[in-house]
Amino acid sequence: MKYQSQKIITTYSDKQKISVEEQKIYHHFLELVSTESIDKIIERFRILFIQCSPYQTPEISTALRKIIEFPECQEKFNYILNRCCYILINHQQLPQDKQNALKKLMTFFKQASDKSESSYYTSRHTKKMLELVRNFTHSQQYLSLKRIVELMNLSYKNDSNNNFNQPLENLHYHYPYLYKYLLINPNSSKEHQQVIRKMQMQKQKQYEINLSHYVTQQARLQLSKLKSSIVTKQLQSVKNPTLLSNDELLLSIKQFVGKVEGNETYRNYAKRFLAYSTLPITYHCFKDNFYEYLITSFDVAPHQIRVQLKDKLYKYLQTMMSDSDDELLSEFLMIKTCHKLLSFFILRNQKQPEHFLFINLISNLGPVITIGLLLKILLVCQLVRPNLEKRFAILFNHYKFSTQKKSQWLVKALENMQIALSTNFGTIDISFFY
Fold first, then answer.
1. Mean pLDDT over residues 181-205, rounded?
2. Which of 265, 378, 409, 411 is 20 to 30 A from residue 393's alpha carbon, by CA?
């Protein structure tokens, strides 16, 4: 028979008492992450929350008992348990292999959820604790927690073992610029958001370091005329940090760092365009200039395709906010224009995920030039970067159940976008390579 809580209204005074006991538990685990190994802390979790055995710090088990004795305590219990888990995940002093211990913690939750009530559980307190844990494993907090642990586990796997037959969603961890849109939703807890932001920064930093090391290795290889096996062996020790081939990666870096627009890099080309656009010009004139700025990317396409793409872009720009054509260009108009162009080239929104033009661009220009086209827009207005990232996240979710093999066009676009963002907006400088 399941434990039935009494229908008693929790007063303000009761809530204050719960808060005091709650803080004791948080402080306890905050102290533990500074003094004990994660394996020992996970075992403490099991004893306190799962097994309900005598706890070696009686004050904490008493505090927890007081909390669950209050009626309608499930929501508070979920919050406490969830936050204690994130205390472990967020702590910076934990070793990199902490994901194994956290997987063990998730196993404990699953075991508690699978347990059937029997005469063995005679304690009223134990029965209620087991029921609370079971309910927690069906909560949104638990699902988010489980996703975090899975993400951490994936992030330590070697990408070279990537299986093309695996679904695209297994590559969530690989694109930190999409974390905010793939892993956080409006109902995500504050702790969950903190973990995602921290993982995003760490993953992006490590990616940039790995990319810099790889490019340095390639520069040394080009400068060196030695072909001895010893030199080759040393150079091979630096791994390609992307899912592109070595040739594809070098081509991408050359595109986003080297001189591609005449004798200018994308960044310098954008600066020159912006310098001209700061002059007092009408919005209509700006759109004409923006058109000329963008269409050089179409030059690699066959003549007929090039004409079609130019015609589509020209007509789109001419009709865009035409009521403002006679106004002087403003920051608002520039931002709005860049927003609309990203919608035009990639997709509109989640409700209208049509992306035929984007696929057409990749098919005819290739993923490198296509991403270069989008980079031109970002370099003109960096404020629209979240807009671009969100649209890529929509595409990712749209194809997440497709195999990586079938979605290679999207994988290559995502990889090139990550390189473009890292080399133009990141902390590394690999311009020495070209």
1. 88
2. 265
- Please state, in angstroms and rounded to a whole number, the distance separating the CA atoms of residues 190 and 141: 11
Q: What angle do CA 39, 41, 44 make, to 5 degrees?
A: 115
**119 band by pLDDT with thresholds 50, 70 and 90:** very low
| pTM of the predicted model as reported, rounded to 2 decimal places | 0.85
Q: Write the DSSP symbol of residue 236.
A: T
Please report, as a single letter, which amino acid is at residue 414: L
Q: How far is CA 2 from CA 58, 107, 118, 126, 134, in A?
A: 27, 23, 11, 11, 12
Say how far apart CA 293 and CA 287 lie, in whole Å: 10
Alpha-carbon distance of 35 to 29, in angstroms, equals: 10
Using the predicted structure, report yes or no on whether residue 340 has a pLDDT greater than 70. Answer: yes
Task: Say how far apart CA 329 and CA 324 lie, in whole Å.
Answer: 9
Cβ-based neighbour number of residue 18 at 10 Å: 20
Strand partners, 328: 282
Q: Give me the pLDDT at residue 146, please.
A: 85
308 CB-near residues (< 8 Å, 6+ apart) = none
Q: Which burial class, exposed, middle or buried, applies to 117 when counting CB atoms under 10 A from its CB (0-12, 13-18, 19+)?
A: middle
The H-or-E segment that residue 191 falls in is helix 190-223
Residue (of 180, 172, 131) closest to 149 by Cα position: 172
* Mean pLDDT computed over 234-258: 87
d(CA 288, CA 282) in angstroms, rounded, equals 10
CA distance 19 to 174: 39
More confident residue, 202 or 12: 202
CA distance 44 to 38: 10
Q: What is the rounded radius of gyration, in angstroms, for the C-alpha atoms of the chain?
A: 27
CA 286 to chain centre: 34
DSSP state of 324: G
User: What is the predicted pLDDT for the residue at 188?
Assistant: 84
Q: Which of 193, 156, 155 is nearest to 174 (CA)?
A: 155
Q: Which two tokens stand for residue 94?
A: 């934990």
DSSP state of 336: H
Q: Are the C-beta atoms of 41 and 32 separated by less than 8 Å?
A: yes
The pLDDT, as a whole number, for residue 346 is 97
| Cβ neighbours around 408 below 10 Å, total | 14
Question: Cα–chain-centroid distance for residue 96?
Answer: 19
Widest CA span in the chain: 83
| 8 Å CB contact between 409 and 198 | no
